[in-house]
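Internal QA ticket QA-208
Title: Verify multi-chain structure generation after dependency bump
Assignee: T.L.

Test input:
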Amino acid sequence: MDFSLLLGLGRFVLATTLLLLLTIPTAFVVIQLELKVIALMQLRLGPNRVGPRGLFQSTIHGFKVLAKEDTVPDQADRATFTLAPWMVYMAAAMSMLVIPFAPGFVAADFNIGVVYFFAILGLSVVGLLVAGWSSYNKYSLLGGLRSAAQMVSYEIPLTLSVVGVVILTGSLNFSQIIAHQLSHGWNVWWQLLGFPIFFIAATAEINRAPFDLVEADSEIVAGPFTEYSGMRFGFFFFAEYVALFIMSAILVTLFFGGYLAPWPFPAQLGGFIGILYGLLWFFAKTYFFIFVAIWMRTTLPRIRVDQLMGVAWKVLLPLSLINLFLTAIAVVAFKL
Amino acid sequence: MTAVDPETRIPDPIDLDRAEEARLRAAAGLAPPSPPAGSEYAGFELVGVPDRPLQTEREREMYTLEEGEMLLNMGPQHPSTHGVLRLVVKIRGEMVTDLDPVFGYLHRGIEKLCENATYTTVLTYVDPMDYLASMHNEHAPAIAFEKLFGIQAPRRAEYIRALVVELNRVFSHGLMIGFLALDMGGLTPILYAFINRDDVVELLAAISGQRMLFNFFRVGGVNWDVNDEFLSRLGTWHGTVMKSIGDNEKLITENEMYGVTGPNLRASGVPFDVRKAHPYSIYDELEFDVITQQSGDVYARYLQRIDEIKQSLHLIDQIMDKMPHGPVQAQVPGIIRPKPGRAYGAVESPRGLYSVYAISDGGPTPYRFRMRDPSFISLQVMPLLMPGHLIADTMAIMASLDPVMGGVDK
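Actual output:
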């Protein structure tokens, strides 16, 4: 009997479960990092009471939302109101499936990883729109519409800048994209225009500052999340930070060699140590870009909704097309 | 759940309220509240529209919606309306077509309180009006009452007054810059602004003993003379403040309106400054120019504040150089019965022309005590500024007018 299919299925289920479980501590770590980094940049102490050096602050926040009263507005559409946080959270968590954390350390290593990733991540906009519409609140509605406009617009330059990488490496498989970077150097050197486009569009795609218009607290309170409380709000909150982690991870994978070590170090090691070595570099690079995103949040004011759309359609879209064109020429000319 | 006998059930107070409201509305000939009582969000659809017949032409214009328009009620509970300001915004998509500011949620009847207090104690009640400019709040009545009593504060007291008032202006403008950035999504400048404010507040606490509501002015002088702690703190602070203004300028220098007094007016190019136009205290002895900006938008108002902070520092230098020796308090009896008459005292507060009009009927308390607060006036131009801008601009424009609701609602 051929058990390979069954074995593969078992491995997939195990990996998926582990990744879903991994999202929770990931969100805790990223939130803790944000609390502490923002505090330091604002000349505050930040959390320093819960656990050693305040390390469990975000964890306790997480458990706190579990204990909060779960309220649903009277006029809200109960079914979709309940479904929306789940949609947003699952979209973020399931896109984690294709990220290669270390050599061979990937939950689902399939050939259309890039397509899968952006398709799944794009689903979160549906959840936000549903949340905004079902809440029966004007702020939520405005936030939901903003999220739809913003995320759909920015998905175009985002995916176009990734197409540059795909042309360069000739693969839609994340593991092969990393393998290509092992032999040709990091993609960022070949995508000097593509990387900033991806970075800006990715920041907008996950609603991080300065593109946090969806939940612009000084204008529309909390956008689609206004009427949510308890664990439902917690899901949105976690999804946001998981999305931040994932976007940094994908950015590292596409442009900065993923789990490959930078120049003075050996790029890869064999065996079990190699996995730990890969994990180390992967997380170091990912958390560096998370740090950059937090840094941007403390420094930059929010951009306005008309400026937001202007940047997407008038600046990023033409630039990403130029980038695509240049990449195609370079690939043909230099036979990369 | 066991069924409760409706006869013995204790009624929900909210239901009683609703029944009472419906009864009152029916008695007054008004439409019943909608949606019908009993639902959790009764009155939800009415949010924004005043629950009385529309009276003026302006109200009918504001509250009549055209196709595609929606009323959005911002405040009095909203993350960024600077206290309990309520803005009813008429929007078309993201575009604001009209706006109606609603005041009164922080009304404490300060004018009436003052009319029931003796002249010398009035100065303690005006402190919490515009709580970011307590010194200015005390200055105007002090001027008015001194005119009423026909007494003169000693010159040293006038210098100390000008000094603390300028210090107050520095931190008030500093905070405005921070709040403006916060309302535009910049998280950090507000914290820097508060750190800078703390230096000034500690300074003022060293001289007055209070950190927020200073209660420092007296009719006919000031409470205390400058002391060593104040002077040493002032020296240190002066060295660091320019650097921190520079930091703030670096953090907020790129981003994007009339009509009133104070920095908001001057940012639109009108050179009106009470300190220059109607000199009070010792301002006619100091050298300073009226700063103006030409463009009159949010950015101009921000630059205006930065320039005025620098100007205040310049004034503080001059005051410290010129300050004479002598007493700081004229001899004033505890309870005074001034001759019947009226007096007006006006100062340039961080938000514009703050003035006090006091009428005496010969009794120990003012017969009428009227305060003109600049934020109250400047907020009313918002309906003229807003149409055609975006929701995001609402908060930026409001913050740039720098209203303090304590002053608006009195």
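Spot checks passed. The first strand of chain B starts at residue 70 and ends at 74.
Status: verified.
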